[in-house]
């Protein structure tokens, strides 16, 4: 969460320094309206990217945590299967992990389209 908070803070500071934020303030919008309608969606794009990358490390870290604390789960199952040379289970687990990463990256791409209308316009034009 520390990485997420630091990244969010730096993204918001960068976005709040942009000219369109000053223009929105000059138009008379409230600070809350400027932050929620103009700054936050633009700052959320790199944050969503970071969430997508962190999901991969979360899945990889599950194997370590489940093995250390003897918790039942997919991480411990893959470690046990590798130790027992059960290749069918290892391949199945890796397929599930790969599919979950592909789905997560697809959801990140869909979220980009929701957050940034310019990306929707480029996609619709092609």
TrEMBL record:
InterPro entries: MetI-like, MetI-like_sf. Residues 1-108 form the ABC transmembrane type-1 domain. It is found in: Cell membrane. It is a multi-pass membrane protein. Keywords: Cell membrane, Membrane, Transmembrane, Transmembrane helix, Transport. The chain crosses the membrane at residues 47-69, 89-112. PANTHER family: DIPEPTIDE TRANSPORT SYSTEM PERMEASE PROTEIN DPPB-RELATED. Belongs to the binding-protein-dependent transport system permease family. This is ABC transporter permease. It comes from Paracoccus cavernae.
């Amino acid at each position: 969460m520390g990485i997420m908070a630091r990244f969010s803070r730096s993204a918001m500071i960068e976005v709040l320094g942009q000219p369109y934020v000053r223009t929105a303030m000059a138009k008379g919008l409230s600070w809350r309206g400027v932050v929620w309608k103009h700054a936050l969606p633009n700052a959320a794009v790199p944050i969503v990217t970071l969430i997508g990358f962190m999901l991969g490390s979360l899945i990889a870290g599950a194997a370590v945590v489940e093995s250390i604390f003897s918790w039942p789960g997919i991480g411990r199952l893959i470690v046990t299967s590798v130790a027992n040379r059960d290749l069918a289970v290892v391949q199945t687990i890796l397929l599930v992990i790969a599919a979950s990463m592909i789905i997560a990256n697809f959801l990140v791409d869909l979220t980009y389209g929701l957050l940034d209308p310019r990306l929707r316009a480029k996609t619709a034009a092609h």
